[in-house]
Design goal:
This protein is mainly beta. It is built from 8 helices and 60 strands. Helices cover about 5% and strands about 35% of the residues. The strands form 16 sheets. Strands 12, 13, 14, 15, 16 and 20 form a 6-stranded mixed β-sheet that branches. Strands 50, 52, 53, 55, 58 and 60 form a 6-stranded antiparallel β-sheet that branches. InterPro entries: 6-blade_b-propeller_TolB-like, Cyt_c-like_dom, Cyt_c-like_dom_sf, Cyt_c_ID, Glc/Sorbosone_DH, Ig-like_fold, PKD/Chitinase_dom, PKD_dom.
């Protein structure tokens, strides 16, 4: 959890550059990189299957795998849970009382990172049944503890509790708890602890505030303190009586003045998931870094997260160094003046909050380090929020007869992940255990807050996903495993239905369309349709028609089996007993494809529901129907928006922004109407309500970064973020101040887009009508909607739906027609009220003049009814007139044509050869009758 806190405090919105990350699949860069595609890599990604084991978890933190396939995992609020693969169920085996609150610097009692952080089995669990928990103990004593319990059967024996170790903490201000645990082959227990330091008052640089009363804001008290257990990786040897001894080789020999002998690694900010290479015994971990986004002389470097390795005990620099020993300045928070830059070879801790040695061991550099922006050294890690998590090192020999071992290509690689960015990387290590290269593992997969990873006894990679909200029971929080199948692969199943519900008798077409088997095996299909308490009905075919006569909620489970017996399943839910409403928007003679600024659009919404009645009859009132009309300047994805409608009063106004946010990691720090790490979006909207310049300033801040508005934290820069996208998101956030006053439009009326509105060729005018019915006693309510998108009457050729013998200029800015006959096409165009079509066309190719020709307009096919032809478009003549050169417009009248048609624009020049360019077109304009 603590690692997520340092996934940074985003106070408007931070967008993960997913394209930049995932387009680098198998790309190796950074120090010592040798190639773009790793030789010998198994690029058949379909051989890896992501299997969901348990869903809707409650802030899961760390898990432990048992030999029989059960999975024990800890949740932050104190629940210890067990997943049983035999039953597929999750049970609670204990609920530990834990502290989860702290008193913030403003005096506010709020949620902390504290809680139940870690769980691990004793190496001899089969004999002694001991497990260890790391958690924040309740009570007046501010401590985090390592406690040992006996665990027999399904319940923890709480009376067996023995506290091995206490880590004294401050609970005045957050953050950084650590909490990862690991045993080595000598049965030594490793524990990570965070620096327990409030860092948001440090402008993203090192928190070394030595002023009186600022103890919680000085990491020199903890990470840089040789006499403190915080900001460390501890190594102890648990003893049978519930105590521990100190193994040889820790950083400070037992008895050394002003030191703690438990310390193995010091100088950590928030170390996370530990791994030990079973071949070498070397230690690896992820390290969550600070929040700054600019290098500043007198303060220090910008922020970096790290992946580290240690062959022996050492100091890893924090709070004096970060990344590859980039040093901070000794900044005086009282005077605002900077002293000397810290020396990695000889760091000195002179803080009044230090109880340990002044002279510290030399700082060790990170193995991998990366900032908010794309890293120069490791660009494949992408950009955006950061929260380095770590993960396991794969060795085939660690497993006895695994059913599904990973390919030999991954032997010895370190699998690491990042909670905020959602990727998994496979890091290749050299003989010296250091970085050689890395590549994306499963680059098409996106994980939601991956917080722990490990390999199980069958060779599968297990991933615990916390989800994307912070301090929240995220619906996407789940436990999954990734199976590798080197032999026969299970079918990939797709299941769907033509209707989700209806009145009884409810007739529904089930479909297995899209199901495939990568081994090309013959498949058999079985649908099992059942209600909660009913007897299942079996249909042994791919696409059966099913009639349900009894009201209720049904599950239709499709199981597909290949010729070798491998199976896979997927289900759809059906509701019988309530016919879905039908919603329709009638445009009463207006064009249903295009909007025309300044032109009136008449509309009328019709709603009919079998059980509720109709809007026309008055049994459904206009107040029950949500109608919205909105203009989006930067495109529209109807499928995405339709799937995002959560309620009938949800507006599609800022669907583009919602789509961007849903694909990003901003939910880690923001909720719509509740404070998280950052302010609620509604709070941002209210703060800037009435501020006419806020939209522009906030959009620029998303791109350039900023700090000081919502506290001391810095919001990082996002230079790769487009101005349009930033502005779209800001508009959405600021609109939330009007949330309570947004009203549905009339179900019948007229609308016109102001002729002074600056429209975009990419813009869309969106009409949406939705109705949620009342449901029945046996069936839940259902929502239906119609969304009609009217596009700009100028259609860019980059948006055509089909083409033949066309070469596109870079960016698809122009279509270059080649040969005697070629075409471009647009699907489903309403020609009602259209009297001509105009082309931005010319007789120019990519390198100069082209042959020219005419453009014919055909209905429904390239040889369909001819409804219009442009005048001949000719190349420019030296010193003479031309008709249709670069930038000219060629117009064709189409006569009295109405209705919806596919349009084909055919380029004709009977004298042209197949390779000759005839005409280039950049856009197509549909002109309305006057």
């Amino acid at each position: 959890m603590n690692k997520i806190i340092s996934a940074k405090y985003f106070y408007v919105v931070l967008i993960l550059a997913a394209v930049g990350i995932f387009s680098a699949a198998f790309k190796q860069t950074g120090p010592n990189s040798t190639s773009n595609v790793p030789p010998g890599a198994d690029t058949e990604q379909n051989r890896f299957t992501r299997v969901v084991l348990a869903q809707k978890l409650e802030e899961p933190m760390q898990f432990e795998l048992l030999k029989d396939g059960r999975v024990l995992f800890a949740e932050r609020k104190g629940k210890l849970k067990l997943y049983n693969p035999t039953t597929g169920k999750v049970t609670v085996i204990a609920e530990i009382p834990v502290s989860t609150k702290y008193k913030s610097f403003t005096g506010e009692i709020t949620e902390a990172e504290d809680g139940l952080q870690g769980v691990i089995l004793d190496p001899n669990y089969d004999q002694n049944h001991w497990i260890y928990l790391y958690y924040s103990q309740v009570g007046n004593e501010a401590v985090n503890v390592v406690a040992r319990f006996e665990w027999l059967g399904d319940k923890l024996i709480e009376s067996s509790k023995k506290i091995l170790l206490k880590v004294a903490v401050q609970r005045e201000e957050c953050c950084h708890v650590g909490g990862g645990m690991l045993f080595d082959k000598q049965n030594n227990l490793y524990l990570t602890t965070g620096d327990n330091t409030f860092s948001r008052s440090s402008s993203g640089f090192t928190p070394i505030d030595e002023r009186p009363g600022q103890y919680p804001r000085d990491a020199q008290k903890s990470s840089g303190n040789t006499n403190d257990l915080r900001g460390k990786i501890l190594r102890i040897h648990p003893e049978p009586d519930g105590t521990y001894t100190i193994p040889e080789g820790n950083l400070f020999p037992k008895g050394t003045a002003k030191t703690r002998p438990e310390i193995y690694i010091m100088g950590n900010r928030n170390p996370w998931r530990l791994a030990i290479d079973s071949r070498t015994g070397w230690l690896y971990w992820g390290e969550v870094g600070p929040d700054g986004f600019n290098d500043t002389v007198g303060r220090g470097p910008k922020a970096y997260d790290e992946f580290n390795m240690a062959k022996q005990a050492g100091n890893y620099g924090w709070p004096y160094m970060v990344a590859d020993n980039k040093a901070y300045w000794d900044y005086d928070f009282a005077t605002g003046k900077s002293g000397e830059q810290f020396n990695p070879a000889h760091p000195i801790n002179n803080s009044p909050n230090n109880t340990g040695l002044n002279d510290l061991p030399p700082a060790q550099p990170a193995m991998i380090w990366y900032p908010y922006i794309v890293s120069d050294e490791f660009p494949e890690l992408g950009s955006g929020s950061r929260s380095a998590t770590g993960g396991p090192i794969y060795h085939r020999s660690d497993f006895k007869n695994p059913k599904r071992p990973f390919p030999a290509y991954y032997e010895g690689k370190w699998f690491v992940t990042d909670w905020a960015r959602g990727w998994i990387m496979a890091v290749t290590l050299g003989e010296d255990g250091k970085y050689k290269s890395m590549e994306h593992f499963l680059p098409k997969e996106m994980f939601r807050g991956p917080i722990d990873m490990d390999f199980g006894p069958d060779g599968d990679l297990y991933v615990l996903e916390y989800g994307n909200g912070y301090f929240a029971d995220n619906p996407e929080a789940q436990l999954v495993k990734i199976e590798y199948n080197g032999g026969n692969r299970r079918p990939v199943v797709q299941a769907s239905s033509d209707k989700k519900g209806g009145a009884v008798p409810f007739k529904v077409q089930l479909s297995a369309a899209g199901t495939e088997d990568f081994d090309r095996d013959a498949l058999t299909y079985q649908w099992k349709v059942t209600s909660k308490n009913g007897t299942p009905k079996i249909f042994n075919q791919a696409n059966p028609v099913v009639t349900i006569t009894t009201p209720g909620v049904y599950t239709a489970l499709l199981t597909v089996t290949d010729a070798k017996g491998a199976k896979n399943s997927k289900a759809v839910q059906l509701t019988a007993g309530n016919e879905p409403p039908v919603v329709n928007i009638d445009f009463k003679g207006s064009n249903k494809s295009f909007y025309f600024p300044g032109k009136k659009i008449d509309y009328n919404v019709n709603v009919n529901d079998k059980e509720d009645g109709s809007l026309a009859s008055g049994k459904i009132t206009p107040a029950q129907v949500a109608v919205t009309i909105d203009y989006l300047s930067e495109g529209y994805d109807q499928v995405v928006i339709a799937s995002n409608q959560r309620s009938v009063d949800a507006s599609v106004r800022f669907a583009t922004a919602q789509n961007l946010i849903s694909k990003s990691d901003c939910k880690a720090c923001h909720n719509i109407d509740k404070k998280s790490l950052g302010p609620a979006f509604t709070a941002v909207a209210l703060k800037y309500k009435g501020d006419n310049g806020a939209e522009d300033r906030l959009a620029k801040k998303i791109i350039s970064g900023g700090s000081g508005v919502w506290g001391d934290a810095a919001m990082p820069a996002h230079p790769s973020f487009s101005t349009n996208d930033a502005a779209t998101i800001v508009k959405y956030i600021l609109s939330l101040s009007e949330k309570q006053t947004i009203k549905s439009r009339p179900v019948k009326g007229s609308y016109s887009l102001d002729s002074t509105t600056k429209t975009s060729p990419k813009g869309n005018l969106i009409f949406r009508a939705a109705y949620r019915d009342k449901g029945t006693k046996t069936a839940a309510a259902q929502t239906a909607e119609e969304v009609v998108v009217l596009r700009n009457p100028i259609v860019q050729v980059s948006n055509v739906d089909r083409d033949e013998n066309i070469e596109f200029a870079p960016g698809r800015a122009r279509a270059l027609a080649k040969g005697p006959m070629s075409y471009i096409g647009i699907n489903k165009v309403d020609l009602t009220g259209i009297d001509s079509i105009e082309f931005a066309a010319g007789a120019f190719g990519a390198m100069g003049p082209a042959l020219g020709g005419t453009i014919e307009i055909h209905l429904d096919s390239p040889t369909g009814k001819l409804i219009g032809t442009t005048p001949e478009i000719t190349p420019p003549q030296p010193g003479g007139a031309r008709r249709g050169g670069r930038g000219a417009r060629a117009k064709a009248g189409i006569g009295e044509v109405t209705g919806m048609h596919d349009l084909y624009f055919v380029f004709v020049n009977s004298k042209a050869k197949n390779t000759d360019v005839t005409i280039s077109v950049s856009d197509i304009k549909f002109d309305q009758k006057l």
